[in-house]
Amino acid sequence: KKELADATAQYKKKIRAQQVDLQANETLIADLQAQNRQQKEVASNMEANADRVKAELENKLKALEQELGTEKGRKDNLASLLGESKGRIDTLNQRNKELQHQVESLESSKIAVEYQLDVTKKELADA
């Protein structure tokens, strides 16, 4: 009987020790589960923040792309206006050259007429 009582006491002691270990492990598991929930919450908040930042950056990118498109349109418009202006300048330069040639021709004609007038005046004076 004593052996049986000793064995029973020993098993009860082992059972209590295992129950203490089990309780410690359950506490550890509960702590780990709480940490896991916190980490999931932090990860979820970070993901939501990342999604918000991504959306903001995408909106800024779209705005910049629109602005770039507008600026390209302005550049193309200015290039077109510049081309038209160059064409007009070329036309005006050509017209100025033509007028200068006409002025030179008229001046030559004027000199010839003045010379003829001087000759005619001299002939009249001599007559």
Task: Note down, in words, how this protein is organized.
The structure is a single chain. The protein is mainly alpha-helical and 127 residues long. It is built from one helix and no strands. The protein has one helix spanning 2-126. The model has no long low-confidence stretch (mean pLDDT 96).
Structural class: mainly alpha
Q: What is the mean predicted local confidence, pLDDT?
A: 96
Strand percentage, roughly? under 5%
Give the low-pLDDT segments.
none
| Quaternary structure state of the chains depicted | single chain
Query: Would you report the number of β strands?
Result: 0
Provide the helix percentage. over 70%
The major β-sheet equals:
none
Shape: rod-shaped
Please tell me how large the radius of gyration is: 53 Å
Instruction: Provide the succession of SSEs.
Output: H
Give me the number of helical elements. 1
Alpha carbon gap, first and last residue: 182 Å
